[in-house]
Write a structure and sequence with these properties.
With 275 residues, the protein is an alpha/beta fold. The protein is built from twelve helices and eight strands. It has a single domain, classed as 2-enoyl-CoA Hydratase, Chain A, domain 1, CATH 3.90.226.10.
Length: 275
């Protein structure tokens, strides 16, 4: 395995692929993260052996965090008639002919949370997993599917609280609300995920893909809504609400350092009071 990328690919067996997020110290989503993930997911679609793809992190306390806003300009331009790269990534993941499984330890926010929502099964550490959509608190709009997927998992009112309130939710609350498939004691998480992956990898690939496609037909948001959400997110970057809060947020982040990423829900509220 090479660690020159923010995304590490491993193949423990022909049927199983492991994708590890590696962008210390806080696992923010960089442009390279999006590009590399898109490359991997696109390549795996034509791999007739893969049945299960597991997503995890090797950065302590962070699964996959929000977008690095400073790097958004580094994303490749969208060719005419094609989807933006992040929208295309989450659509491909949801429609992929294999099963996607997240083993979540650490903060999972913004774009990282939206990627997790696009996966099929999400297993979280009770002690160490936290979730959030902080965009509205920063004067932005979610752009990677949070506003489209969370209402389907949580219901309208809970999704509104999570998105509008921009706070952090622990794994126990996320499980109660349907944000994650299951929350387990941290000491049991790896063994549980390994057993589930082994079980799925032993099944017939065509049956797995067909059953997933059948569930998708009744549960997925329209792709057009995801495209609109990404456009709204991009437009919100230039709105006065974001501009007014960006300076206060940056000042707090400079003052508290990495603690900003640990307690983002609290600091976003503080930045709004100072804006």
């Amino acid at each position: 395995m090479s660690t020159s990328s923010t995304v590490i690919l491993d193949r423990p067996s022909p049927e199983v692929v492991t994708i590890t997020f590696h962008n210390p110290p806080a696992n923010v989503v960089a442009a390279e993260t999006a590009v590399r993930l898109h490359e991997i997911v696109t390549d795996l679609e034509s791999d007739s052996d893969v049945q299960v793809v597991v997503f995890k992190s090797d950065v302590p306390d962070f699964f996959l965090n929000h977008f690095d806003l400073a790097a958004l300009g580094e994303l490749p331009p969208t060719p005419e008639g094609e989807l933006p790269i992040w929208t295309d990534l989450v659509v491909r993941l949801t429609n992929a002919p294999y099963i996607t499984v997240a083993s979540i330890r650490g903060r999972t926010r913004g774009g990282g949370n939206e990627l997790a929502l696009a996966l099929d099964l999400r297993y979280a550490s009770l002690e160490n997993a936290f979730f959030g959509q902080p965009e509205v608190g920063a004067g932005l709009l979610p752009g990677g599917g949070g506003t489209e997927r969370l209402p389907r998992f949580l219901g309208r009112d809970r999704a509104l609280e999570a998105i509008l309130g921009s706070g952090d939710y622990d794994a126990a609350q996320a499980e109660r609300w349907g944000w994650v498939t299951r929350a387990l004691p941290d000491a049991e998480l790896d063994a549980f995920v390994d057993d589930m992956v082994e079980r799925l990898a032993s099944f017939d690939r065509n049956s797995l893909a067909a059953a997933k496609a059948a569930v998708n037909r009744s549960t997925l948001p329209p792709t057009g809504d995801l495209v609109t959400a990404f456009s709204d997110f991009a437009r919100s970057l230039s709105l006065p609400g974001f501009q007014a809060r960006a300076a206060a947020t940056q000042a707090i982040a400079a003052e508290v350092g990495l603690d900003f990423e640990y307690r983002m829900g609290e600091y976003v509220a503080k930045a709004n009071k100072q804006a």
